[in-house]
Design goal:
heterodimer, A: about 325 residues, mainly alpha, MetI-like fold, 2 domains, B: about 350 residues, alpha+beta, SH3 type barrels, 3 domains, six-stranded antiparallel sheet, 8 strands, about 60% helix
Amino acid sequence: MMEQSRIMQAKQAFDAFVDWIYDFIIYLTDLIFGTLQRLIGTKHMPYIFVLPNLLIFGIFILFPMLLNFVYAFTGGASFFPFNRPWVGTVNFERLLACEVYLEPRTCSEDLFWRAVHNTVGYVVLQVSLMVLFSLITALILNRRIKGRGFFRGVFFYPVLLSPIVVALIWKWIFQDNGVLNGILVSLGYNKVPFLVNSQWARALVVFISVWAFMGFYTLILLAGLQSIPPELYEAAAIDGANPWQSFSRITMPLLMPTMSVVLVLALIRAVQVFDIVFAFTGGGPGTATLYLVQYIYNYGFSSPNRQFGLAAAASLLMGGVLIILTLIQLALQREEN
Amino acid sequence: MKTVLGNLFVIKKHRRTGITDILAYLYLFAGVIVMFGPVVWLVLSSFKSPNEIVKFPPRLFPYRQVTTVVEGYEQPLPLYKVIFDDGTSKTLAQVRRVGIEAHLVDPENPGEIIKVNINQRQPVEEIYFGLENYIEGVKSFDFGRYLWNSVVVTVVATLLTLLVNSMAAFALSKYRFRGRQTIFLIMISTLMVPLSVVLVPIFLVITKVGWNNNLLGVIVPAAATPTGVFLLRQYMLTIPDELVDAARIDGASEWRIYTQIILPLAKPALAVLTIFSVMWRWNDFLWPLIVLSKSEYFTLQVGLASFQGELNVQWNLILAMTVLTLLPITFVFGFLQKSITTGIATTGLK
């Protein structure tokens, strides 16, 4: 008892101290902002409040967005926009010139098309697998499960890990002398060259990103499931509906809005896949796991002869796709509301 | 099949434990192994010695050879179990190895040296969780500096994000002023343009400002997140305007209204934004990778990525550093699991 009351006292003293500090900061800052208010008038104060945000936003987000167009329509090796000659749509033409679009080898920028191909394949596979597993997990977690909080936490935990940590965890498992090959060999099979074989590397990148992100979508789908009123199921049961009917006639239709939001969110994220792959395979073997953002990164920041124009043009093309996807998402959300 | 699926996915009120329950729990336990197993394996491996870590096939737990102090020898000697030709076996300490012959002594009777073929002896081992990798890793990896950089970035950026965005959200929710709609619309429209699209020009801006290899270059640009403004504005709209008006009549300045009425009332939304901001900043990789090229400014994530890209990958050190990097987030998750999951479920943000 004594101990507890002492802790309480300490806590109160601490809270009082924090309050005092906060009041002091307010007092000091109010000297500035109060004077400012007297100088410019109350009517103009909202501009002061949005100013810091707008400054940062304008300089570091809005301005670069406009600048991106300048890069995309200019050429040369210079990094500074004023030293770059205007070339019109040459960068786009180079990116898009292909004899046969399904054959990256026939394109003038074959790496770009390889990245496009890889990204499309990745997006299709990753998004469908992720939505499928998130849905199954959410449906199962929505049952009366003992320890639901624990299981939900387990599926969600990888979402919080950084992409680098995720990549390292799995690289350690899949490497040539890793635990998976260890298990295979002790069972009498041969080693599998997980990170050296293109097909395996592609499949594993999909697997790892599903592993890392599915908890997030599971959570959203679970929230969607829990907002379905239970009376509907009771009424259906009274009417003699079997479980499959209640699933296909109640759960699925009512979950559809959430599903479509999840689908578009997953698509937007999948198109931009970068950091996990960067640390896991680095785009290899060869160009097997080279995706769009890494292509842009390579041309903008790491290749010996940087081509900012190409990188910017490629990012504008990708941005166009993303904006279309986002507009679809906004339309879906509006429909939902 | 259909009934099984239907049962599996539908909640029923009164029922006995059936096959579908078993399937559900099987799925969940398989999930625990797949989701958690790799992390457990990482932690177990991070305690292994450099010799142990390259062993193939790997063993589950970290082991070390048992050593013992034998009279007459300065160093502790490693213990081996020796099987003699007549089938008997004995635990002996190895003094030295000469070619394929091992010289061992009985710890009880150290005077007499026993010579056996090295294939006749097996090391005696015990499970051992040693901190050697962690200590060496922290030294050779410059962990302290990266940790410090990561902490500075996370803390300062989160404070700045909260301040700048709550100020803007306050103005956008509690005032009517010219340009309000325009500002809000521009911000919302950039929600859909991710960083990855504007990599090149952002790099130019940061270079021009002189923030290359400066933590400010990592902290400031992403502080004005449209997501944050949107989240806070929606919450502040629910705070009654009468409170603001009353305070104004009492002679409070606009700054005091913001700090003493709006901010305390918006605590729940600020808490959600804090959690997100800490997660974003701690795990951020692409942005610091572009802005920082000198290793003394690296954050943990960039440092870890460059450490593992080096030619001679020392897995025992990398794994230990990976564990240290994921510890803070794991602790935060352990304590705030509920508010994190509900925050994400209600906002749809990650």
